[in-house]
Amino acid sequence: MFSKATTLLAFAASASAHMTLFHPTPFSNSTLTRNPLEPADFPCKQRSNMYDITEMNQWNAGETQEVSFAGSAVHGGGSCQFSITTDAEPTKDSQWKVIHSVEGGCPASAPGNFADLQDYASLHKATNFPVTMPEDIPDGRYTFAWTWFNKVGNREFYMNCAPIQVGSASTASTASTAKVAAALGGLPDMFVANLPASSCATAEGQDFVFPNPGQSVARANPAAAYGNATTGGNAACAAMAKLGAGNGKLGSPTGGASPSAPAATQPAYSAAPVPSEAPAYSAAPVPSKAPAYSAAPIASASGIPGVFAPGASPAPAATAPAYSAAPVASAAPVAPSTPHTTDCTPCTNDGAVVCIGSDSFGLCNRGCAVAQKLSLGTMCRDGKVIGATKRSFPRAHLHKRHGAGLRSL
């Protein structure tokens, strides 16, 4: 089993700088690549031992958690959806239901990409997004998915998946298919495009507006360039969009397994920096019916000449994300819940590291920090997890792109 810190260090040493899901912890995290999906990868970025569980993620009904990412190639942001399925090991027949959509500014609001990643902080410049689990979802094991349509660069589709446990794992779920359908059936199916882009592609330079984002939807910047233009024709796009519906049937979740913590012998990690002013989001209008697709040519990749390596997108580098504040609103507000545990250390700064004794630490979450044992050779001091020696890591090796000789992330 690999800890989050070990995985991040391996990530920083690689040449690939695309984005990946960080929390909740994805399946088989140590083998997860950062490249966009090919048709054969759907769903969840298929690979050998795809559904090995690195860490079971606890996420209770009605609870709000912040979904976070690692990487630097944010490709100008774009639009994301957060979905779940009742299948513990999803296939192309799985039906995905959207619990939250973000149109624009996901995974970050930036004109291009962030600078080279060198450490934990630079890996986590992307925005954290609050996502609430449906209040009436039955207990059991589900699979969570993050999907992303980038704004700048090649037309791509990203999808990472993570195992989640809703409610108690000690009691097998007795929820019938009818109960699951009652809780999730009214949610929209996950949208799919750019798989491949030659058949149906979202237009470059726009923050994509989903045909049906659902009732829980946010927009990072209401003044941004939004649109639902696609290329490939209505029939091709409609057929591809249905991939998120699978066979159109929701099953019943299994009882699941107890959530696990990273092994104590692995290096400890510290919390990603929390900005003093998190970007605000405004609720986007929910259309009464799904808008029709409109055709638009795919714009050239930022006007940069040259032939680019597969999976690389020619996006200009940005030194810092540019957020636009908007009035905070919610299409369907749900009161966040405090983590359910008796081992709670009170805290006030959400997202901050809390030192608990000499050998434990916790992350402040809704006023509560749950103690986690530190690895050997590490200690918690002044809100930071530190080691006996400070390690540094070389810059990631960069490959030259063919043609113009530009460097790719």
UniProtKB/TrEMBL annotation:
<feature type="signal peptide">
    <location>
        <begin position="1"/>
        <end position="17"/>
    </location>
</feature>
<keyword id="KW-0732">Signal</keyword>
<protein>
    <recommendedName>
        <fullName>Lytic polysaccharide monooxygenase</fullName>
    </recommendedName>
</protein>
